[in-house]
Amino acid sequence: MKTVSLARNAMATRFEMVLHGEDELGLRAAGEEALDEITALASQLNFYGADSEITRINAGAALGSVPVEPGLFRLLQEAKRVHGLSGGAFDITVAPLMRCWGFADGKHRVPSPGELAKARECVGMDLVHLDAETFTVQFERPGVRVDLGAIGKGFALEIAGEILREAGVTSALIHGGTSTVCAISSPPAEAFWKTAIEHSGWGRPDADVPEHKRLVAVAKLRDEALSVSAVWGRVFEERGVSYGHVLDPRSGQPAQNALLAAVALPSGTAADARSTAVLVSGGAGLAALGQAGESSRSLLLQPNGNFGFRTLNDGFDLPER
């Protein structure tokens, strides 16, 4: 049994994969093809790329119908579907709010109520019209922008997994920045791939968690995708209050219903979108996921005072405390 490990940087993160099989050259060729597709998708979906298809849509869709490549059109349809299932908690039009809070350019600040209200006028998937007959997208008003950052990695991993399977790869693990993982079957002589879910604090230096206490749960994956979303990362303080970069598109305010959300589903695209939706809406997001009738597993950490948390778990292995 041969093992091949490959990696490449794309989508502002590092994609890595491990493949097992008898044909080392075949594994390497399949892995390189999958990474090439991830690189191509990164260019297509890049919100900041001057020549990306997303930039072309954002520049023209308020002026008229813009033709969209079929794969990207289906991704936009899925984003709109999850928006509806989540009651608006997942929304790819959140970019005006990110800019308003300074998370787009790094100049963090708390916006005024007037600034926030103006930004919210351009947020909402009801402002994005998709025509399935012509594969076109149109925005209802100027200022609307779509950003697939919350679903793009899962989509890229799902497509990469399809390429590996079509090439005959029967055992592989692919991850993008450790937050999104796609598992094909299981490793040799094992029933599952095991992935640690960790937390590192609430985004504040004085709340850093010791390494030996960071493990929250272990996900056992077999022909599944796992996505983990968390509020820590880009955080700033103003007048003693911390503000995180994950925004609730319904209110325009930083999400406060959860600290971390993890979702495992057969689809990487679905897992990526739904972990964001659950992080934003908390327990209500878990309920909506269950009502969607999907075979999923989920984990939710909710704040519980003084940097503590309580855990809602459905299907993951929790460590002994």
Which second-level CATH architecture of the domain at 188-314 applies? Roll
- The proportion of strand residues reads 25-35%
Report the uncertain regions: none
pLDDT average, as an integer? 90
Q: What share of the residues lie within helices?
A: 25-40%
Content-based structural category: alpha+beta
Main pleated-sheet profile? 8 strands, antiparallel
Please name the fourth-level CATH homologous superfamily of the domain at 188-314: ApbE-like domains
Q: Tell me the radius of gyration.
A: 20 Å
The H/E string reads: EEHHEHHHEEHEEEEEEEEHHEE
Oligomeric state of the chains present here: single chain
Q: How are strands sequenced across the largest beta sheet?
A: 1-2-6-7-10-13-14-15
Give the helix tally: 8
Shape call: globular
Taking the alpha carbons of the first and last residues, their distance comes to 37 Å
Can you count the beta strands? 15
CATH top level class name of the domain at 188-314: Alpha Beta
CATH topology of the domain at 188-314: T-fold
